Amino acid sequence: MASENIKRVKSSEIELKDRLVEVRRVTKVTKGGRAFGFSAIVVVGNESGVVGHGLGKAKEATSAIEKAIDDAKKNLIRVPIVNGSVPHEQIGRFGGAEIFLRPAAHGTGVIAGGAMRAVLESVGITDVLAKSKGSSNPANVVKATIEALTQMRDAYTVARQRNVSLETVFNG
């Protein structure tokens, strides 16, 4: 069902800002010694409802970051934002990471840490309460956050999917 809600966006249509979540030095042990490389996780977004994440690997950190940005631009999704917050509570899981998002009143700010904060700020959410449980691996936390955001539906989408009026959605 989540795949029905995903709205893909073309990166050429919008101005995107990128945020570096993590750069990690990785090592491959060969018979000639150790071969070092870099792995980078980047989140891109336009701060008004569009976000994407990417992973890049290369022998140099700058190349890995560039590859991650290119990958992130290929994985963009559109997220509904209601008054600067998420429309409803949502849980996202990926691997060992589990995250919980809850709408917050205006002025609360982004109550989230690390990798989750980068995703939420890139998408343009200004007020949200969030909690990360389980694994703190930044790659899995980013993917769990994106998973939760893809499952978000605003009232208009719910009304359209149920073939009812907007008043019926709120009044039952």
Q: Biggest sheet, strands in spatial order?
A: 1-2-3-4
Rg, alpha carbons: 18 Å
Q: Roughly what fraction of the amino acids lie in strands?
A: 25-35%
Largest sheet: 4 strands, antiparallel
Which parts are unreliable, with pLDDT below 50 for 5 consecutive residues or more?
Answer: none
Topology:
Layout: H1 2-5, E1 17-30, E2 33-45, E3 50-58, H2 61-73, E4 76-78, E5 90-94, E6 97-103, E7 110-111, H3 114-123, E8 128-134, H4 138-150, H5 155-162, H6 166-171
Parallel strand pairs: 7-8
Antiparallel strand pairs: 1-2, 2-3, 3-4, 5-6, 6-8
Structural commentary:
This protein is α+β, with helices and mostly antiparallel strands. Helices cover 31% and strands 35% of the residues. It is built from six helices and eight strands, in the order H-E-E-E-H-E-E-E-E-H-E-H-H-H. The protein has a four-stranded antiparallel sheet with strand order 1-2-3-4. A hairpin with a 2-residue loop joins strand 1 and strand 2. Helix 3 runs parallel beside helix 4. The model has no long low-confidence stretch (mean pLDDT 89).
